[in-house]
Amino acid sequence: MKLIYTGKTKNVYAVEDGNYLLKFKDDVTGENGVFDPGANTVGLTIEGAGRAGLKLTKHFFEVIKEKGIPTHYIDANIEEATMKVKAATVFGKGLEVICRYRGVGSFLKRYGGYVTEGQPLDAFVEVTLKDDGRQDPPITVDALEMLGILSKAEYEIIKDLTRKIAAIVKEELEKKSIELYDIKFEFGRDNCSGEVLLIDEISGGNMRAYKDGKYIEPLLLERLMLA
Ligand SMILES: Nc1ncnc2c1ncn2[C@@H]1O[C@H](COP(=O)(O)OP(=O)(O)O)[C@@H](O)[C@H]1O
Ligand SMILES: [Mg+2]
């Protein structure tokens, strides 16, 4: 097994069979020792955070795969905090695709002159570049095409998949009376087939979830969802 990437919260290994192994670490993003899923730096270590994130990721990927959405998921080993996935190549240097049901977070920060906090949004999709040094800037479809990151046709495929996957996660959360405000995904091209796949993870750190109008932090979300 060869370490090919050291991420903020996971390490990526290449396995002999051509697949990748994602190792979920207990490192979480944040600033000054405070857990913040949106932060671009590792802020602290929480015992069991890796395994908790993997459990929720496993749950969502199994539901999503069941519904016929192409994903990188193969299997997971909770004890070892590892997930076996199909090897993929990200678009450009990596993108995050966000689906918004309510105007909060960076959307509210940017467009606060036009939306009120928590205003309902109709599964609005937007793309940001994974670029920690530039605070993950939002990017338009024209810029994605011009910079050779995605074609317009690929953008449409990803947008459609994003809406479908977000709706599945939203429905799962609703079973526990939890409301999904927004969620971010990553996509890549399957190294073998070239197919566009949902990759990475889907855990508490990838979404904003609320119960009775109160924000549910990632570790609590994992406990509520898998109880
Ligand atoms: N199936 C896959 N193939 C290739 N790369 C992947 C796959 N799934 C996830 N990744 C990448 O692996 C990395 C996971 O580690 P993470 O700690 O989340 O990194 P980051 O700090 O870049 O967010 C991410 O960069 C993600 O894009
Ligand atoms: Mg990540």
Automatic annotation (TrEMBL):
Any one Gene Ontology molecular-function term assigned to this protein's record: phosphoribosylaminoimidazolesuccinocarboxamide synthase activity
Pathway noted in the entry: Purine metabolism; IMP biosynthesis via de novo pathway; 5-amino-1-(5-phospho-D-ribosyl)imidazole-4-carboxamide from 5-amino-1-(5-phospho-D-ribosyl)imidazole-4-carboxylate: step 1/2
Class in the EC hierarchy, top level: ligase
Highest taxon listed in the record's lineage: Bacteria
Keywords, ordered alphabetically: ATP-binding, Ligase, Nucleotide-binding, Purine biosynthesis
Domain SAICAR synthetase/ADE2 N-terminal per the UniProt entry, residue ranges: 4-215
GO terms of biological process kind: 'de novo' IMP biosynthetic process
Enzyme nomenclature, EC number: 6.3.2.6
Catalytic activity: 5-amino-1-(5-phospho-D-ribosyl)imidazole-4-carboxylate + L-aspartate + ATP = (2S)-2-[5-amino-1-(5-phospho-beta-D-ribosyl)imidazole-4-carboxamido]succinate + ADP + phosphate + 2 H(+)
This protein's name: phosphoribosylaminoimidazolesuccinocarboxamide synthase
Species annotation: Alkaliphilus serpentinus
